């Protein structure tokens, strides 16, 4: 009989406003990783915010993002080869300070082959609505030049807004056999 | 005891380069399928990756339709006119440098109904960065027992495809 997979590895629940969360010492027994986020932050004057991602604490690696988004009544794309950044990139979407503090944006991060010795890729998708006529849907493809197995993942508000109370972050491992 | 779900039911990792990965006799015990593709190419130019459904060893070349959002650097959308297969990515694919990641959901794959699919691709490199979303339908009520993924040129050694079964009850 096949075994079940999709195992909860770690949980972060924000009990008081904090700048970031980090999953550390990530188990190396899975094939892929998934993070489920339900969060809001204190980005001033904004309905939503992106999440900034740093892998393995590696702030010297280069990162790339390609994003598709729909925001309110418009759509767009950005990132890509012109947006290689050193130290971090972005994905998902959460609520910002313009939304009430009990309204959370929801996002998923899927990391492929996180133990490999190749450069890492991951995909994200997310949606956040405001208590009013504003919403954003985001899909990203991401890449890091880091070739070490992923043992830590740091997430924080992209625009320096601290994560608000009761934001949640769940890390799952997915086996392939 | 809770029903086990999200169960890995098949995986292929290439030990030699090939332009086709095939799965036969896929278990019919689940409601939906989630397929994770990690595909790396053997040439420097990009390729499109295709998916085709089959039943009892025979692949069916009609009834497919799809719409895509995203084309590398823009947020354009396009309807694909080919009906012989699903194109999992509209304008980009695999390179020799970076594996492309794909997440494909196939709903009600074992039921006697038209099938629908939803997917997301991630191919980020310095030549053609892109993430794309696609949805499609298959105008065929045949249960899907076989899956084929292919491109015009070989996938590299180490490319892999994992199929998960999602149980509803």
Largest sheet of chain B: 8 strands, antiparallel
* SSE order of chain B: EEEEEEEEEEEEE
Could you give the distance between the termini of chain A? Answer: 11 Å
Judged by helices, strands and strand pairing, the structural class of chain A is mainly beta
Helix content of chain B: under 10%
Number of strands of chain B: 13
User: Beta fraction of the residues of chain A?
Assistant: over 45%
Number of helical stretches of at least 4 residues of chain B = 0
Radius of gyration of chain A: 16 Å
How does the overall form of chain A come out from the CA principal axes?
globular
Commentary on this structure:
- The complex is a heterodimer of chains A (177) and B (169).
- Chain A has 177 residues and is mostly beta strands.
- Helix content of chain A is 0%, strand content 51%.
- Chain A is built from no helices and 13 strands.
- Chain A has strands at residues 7-13, 20-23, 32-39, 48-55, 62-71, 74-79, 85-86, 89-95, 105-111, 120-129, 135-144, 153-157, 168-174.
- In chain A, strands 1, 3, 5, 6, 7, 9, 10, 11 and 13 form a nine-stranded antiparallel beta sheet that branches. A four-stranded antiparallel beta sheet of chain A has the order 2-12-4-8, with no helix packed on it.
- The radius of gyration of chain A is 16 Å and the shape is globular.
- Chain B is an all-beta fold and 169 residues long.
- In chain B, the strands form two sheets. In chain B, strands 1-13-3-9-10-11-6-7 form an eight-stranded antiparallel beta sheet, with no helix packed on it. In chain B, strands 2, 4, 5, 8 and 12 form a five-stranded antiparallel beta sheet that branches.
- Chain B is globular, with a radius of gyration of 15 Å.
- Chain B starts with 6 loop residues before the first strand and ends with a strand.
- The relative contact order of chain B is 0.37.
- The mean pLDDT of chain B is 88.
- Classes of the chains: A mainly beta (177), B mainly beta (169).
- Chain A binds chain B through residues 2-6, 31-32, 64-69, 75-77, 79-81, 110, 112-113, 118-119, 121-123, 125, 139-143, 174-177, and chain B through 4-9, 11, 36, 38, 69-70, 72-75, 98-101, 103, 120-127, 129-133, 160, 162, 164-165.
């Amino acid at each position: 009989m096949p075994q079940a997979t999709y195992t909860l590895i770690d949980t972060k629940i924000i009990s008081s406003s904090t700048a970031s969360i980090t999953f550390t010492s990530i188990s190396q027994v899975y094939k892929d990783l998934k993070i489920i986020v339900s969060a809001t932050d204190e980005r001033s004057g904004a309905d939503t915010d992106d999440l900034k991602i740093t892998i393995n604490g590696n702030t010297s690696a280069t990162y790339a993002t390609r994003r598709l988004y729909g925001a309110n009544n418009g759509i767009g794309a950005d990132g890509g080869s012109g947006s290689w950044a050193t130290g971090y990139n972005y994905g998902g979407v959460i609520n910002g300070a313009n939304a009430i503090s009990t309204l959370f944006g929801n996002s998923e991060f899927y990391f492929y082959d996180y133990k490999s010795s190749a450069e890492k890729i991951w995909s994200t998708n997310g949606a956040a609505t405001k208590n009013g006529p504003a919403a954003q849907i985001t899909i990203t493809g991401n890449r890091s030049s880091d070739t070490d197995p992923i043992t830590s993942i740091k997430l924080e508000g992209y625009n320096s807004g601290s994560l608000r109370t009761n934001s949640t972050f769940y890390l799952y491992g997915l086996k392939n056999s | 005891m809770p029903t086990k779900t999200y169960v890995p039911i098949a995986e292929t990792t290439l030990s030699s380069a090939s332009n086709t990965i095939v799965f036969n006799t896929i278990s019919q015990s689940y409601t939906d399928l989630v397929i994770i593709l990690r595909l790396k190419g053997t040439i420097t130019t990009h390729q499109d990756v295709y998916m085709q459904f089959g039943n009892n060893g025979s692949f069916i070349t009609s009834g497919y339709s799809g719409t895509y959002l995203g084309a590398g650097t823009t947020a354009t959308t396009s309807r694909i006119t080919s009906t012989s297969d699903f194109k999992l990515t509209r304008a980009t694919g695999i390179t020799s440098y970076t594996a492309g990641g794909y997440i494909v959901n196939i709903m009600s794959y074992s039921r006697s109904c038209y099938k629908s699919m939803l997917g997301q691709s991630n191919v980020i490199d310095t030549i053609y960065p892109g993430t794309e979303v696609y949805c499609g339908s298959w105008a065929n009520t045949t249960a899907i027992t076989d899956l084929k993924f292919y491109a015009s040129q070989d996938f590299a050694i180490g490319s892999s495809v994992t199929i998960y079964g999602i149980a509803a009850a």
